[in-house]
Amino acid sequence: MERLAHGPRENRNNIDNRMSQGTASPGARSSLARLPSGIWALGFVSLFMDISSEMIHGLLPVFLTSVLGASTQMLGVIEGIGEATASISKLFSGWLSDRLGKRKALTVIGYGLGALSKPLFALAPTSSLVLAARFSDRVGKGIRGAPRDAMVGDMVPGGLRGAAYGLRQALDTVGAFAGPLIAIALMATLNDNFRLIFWLALIPGLISVLVLLVAVREPLHEAVGTQAPLKFGDLRTLDAAYWIVVAIGAVLTLARFSEAFLILRAQSAGLSLALAPLALVVYSLSAYPLGALSDQIDRKLILAIGFVTLIVSDIVLAVASNLLAVMAGVALWGLHMGMTQGLLAALVADEAPINLRATSFGMFNFVSGIALLLASLIAGALWETVGPYATFMAGATFTTIGLVGTAVALRR
């Protein structure tokens, strides 16, 4: 998904102008061809790691509840703690990356830890050990996230940054699409052998690390690591535009709990065990195209439509009485992700100075992760005590409140 505005902006005083700029120039069509090879390599790194992760993630909710006998409340705890752990790790890895002026080393450590955590899922006999495996996997995600996102911004000039983030997100989405499909095929051919599939997920994870080691070089940083030692207090120097982006991301995340509940909802509507990952396939298909569209029209409009789409998705998932309606709700959920996630990442890169770029991504993801922890705990508790209807209607309520609050903040 592509950046909001290409090139430097002379007037940084008006957030409305910043968030509504788009690029419809013919040159944008050829921007992919001008991207350095390192951006493509990082995209394939994301692709293979997403295949590895989604082979497990697409099956994990069903594995926990059907095989290990875990409750949906425990599922919410595992997902919430896992994502919060990733977000906290991103905060510190982002700061450390800016402090050291290094991106690649931390990125390698993060992807390596993510790959090596995969066998833990296969070996886990209880939900508590699945939590430990999820914790390890998410720590790896947290360590690599902010330095990798900052590395993308470092590798390209401002005029190509949107295309660079768009390409990485596109290949990431291909991995998120392929992982569940591979899991479906393996479930059918291996007689629903969850643990063997979890072992096989290690292979694309190791390929991801190998591509990163061989094909990605540390970008040059003129302004990173050359100033006085960084402190977290330096974030106070960021202007209001950045903090509004952080607030919007947090509100959206609070309203949007873990995708694991989408899988459980599809299963409850009749999706067979082997086809459970199909819910994530529908989600993945819709993510990139609408994100690319956001480069052509008003950014505030895209965000507003994203909020409304999530509200409609939650209502459909709450009241759906058959599998077709549930999958329509999942598709709408994916549309909302495509409208908002890449756009917010580009905004963070846009508003953060280079010496605080990774730290800024870390703070953004930290705040969003805390919101996701709360959202997943609430979703799990509501599902356990009341049912899916209450979980998704609560999401629609949070989203409505967030839409009104965001509209007021952007107007001001």
What does this 3D model show about the protein?
By secondary structure, the protein is an all-alpha fold. It has one domain (36-220, 236-411): MFS general substrate transporter like domains (Growth Hormone, Chain: A, Up-down Bundle). It contains 18 helices and no strands. Helix 8 runs antiparallel to helix 16. The protein is globular. The chain starts with 14 loop residues before the first helix and ends with a helix. The model is unreliable at 1-29 and 223-229 (pLDDT under 50).
- Report the count of strand segments: 0
CATH topology tier name = Growth Hormone, Chain: A
Radius of gyration computed on alpha carbons: 20 Å
Instruction: Find the CATH superfamily.
Output: MFS general substrate transporter like domains
SSE series:
HHHHHHHHHHHHHHHHHH
Strand count, sense and barrel status of the largest sheet are: none
CATH top level class name: Mainly Alpha
Number of helices: 18
Query: What portion of residues is helical?
Result: over 70%
Q: What does the oligomeric state look like here? A: single chain
**Share of β-strand residues:** under 5%
